[in-house]
Amino acid sequence: MEAINIPQLAKSLEQKEVIQVQEFIPELETLTPVRGRIVVKHQGNYLEVSAKAETIITLTCNRCLQQYNYRLSLKTSELIWLDEQASVLDSEPLEREIALEDLVETLSPQGYFQPDVWLYEQLCLAIPPKQLCDNECPGLPLSGSEASVTLSDRRWDALEALKNQFYS
Question: Per the domain annotation, does 131 fall within a domain?
Answer without folding.
Answer: yes
